[in-house]
Fold this sequence. Notes:
By secondary structure, this protein is α/β, with parallel strands linked by helices.
Amino acid sequence: MRSLDEFATAKLGELERQSLRRVLADTTRVTGIWALRNGRRLLSFCCNDYLNLTHHPAIKEAAIQALRIYGVGAGASRLVTGNHPLFGELEARLARWKETEAATVFGSGYLANVGIIPTLVGGDDLVLIDELSHACLWAGARLSGATVISFRHADVGHVEALLTEQRRRHPRALIATDGVFSMDGDLAPLPALAAAAQQHDAWLMSDDAHGLGVVGDGRGSNFAQAGKVDIPLQMGTLSKALGAYGGYLCASAEVSDLIRNRARSLIYSTGLPPPIAAAAIAALDLIAREPAYAALPLAKAKAFARAASLPEPASPIVPVVLGEAEAALAASRLLEDHGFLVTAIRPPTVPAGTARLRLTFTAQHPDAEIERLAQIVRDRILVRPRESVAASQ
Ligand SMILES: Cc1ncc(COP(=O)(O)O)c(C=O)c1O
């Protein structure tokens, strides 16, 4: 339809003018760290495959075996005929690993967040959400119809002030935050948030998509700071360090039962493919068996940051904030010229004026390549803003 195509063209033109138009680039990941793009073999530093388990022989074998026996897809929603016994096994292992009574697996992390939050809070209720939380936590919060108020990033004082002012106006309150922030790599102040939640009878929910497998001895961000922090709603994904796909919620038996009864993105969506559940189980086994391996991505991120003269990271994610989208795109192109794949991250994924390179470190990245990357970032990318400031004076 002409008006529809004109609408799309105008919108795309707007994005183009702001250097915010995106294209899907064909990328073939040939190992856990190497990728083929535009006919070139590039060392990827922007994947969430922190433990390179997407290509691990034992994990692939687990998926292949399950695929041979059970087929590809689940065939229906979990509440109809799609609830393969592997899901129960996966959920039991997740609950054991996260030390909760139960766990519930969803089709993806995004589906988990948009299913969990509207099941627990509604129009009369309150959601306080860290301003830098992932888009799907925001989506779940907005979908719930609750009053949604963002708090300043990692600012527990702000959370306390909002709870003092707002809590009594709402029957239920939920505090939502990334455990490891996806674009910044820092950890949420979970011990203090848990204390504030306890004091005001609010429910704390963490999204540990980037924590599971790589911080807190592989158990996630609530095990990474001063012992174990009790969080009643621990959401995460199987698609990053576990190298598979799917989302989960670890919670009490009662909450898990309610989620299975009411979360629309679980009820009205097909269950995970059984081979993917088999891969996730094998990945969890590996992480539990090999803590030294699970510690490598963070150690490599720290080595990079030292070499690039950047602040020490708390997770395998290291942001290099450059400002405008064009600067991030130019830095990404420069790195590609040197054989590295690092996608530029631009608004709206990050706030305006904070476009960046988001570097992610994985267990198998060679130390010499990390050193070479650090040199380029330090000498060719981070010096640029200072040079241009000097030139304009
Ligand atoms: C913090 C965070 N939460 C949730 C998700 C969504 O998870 P999934 O990719 O499994 O949908 C992502 C990843 O994209 C993420 O970074």
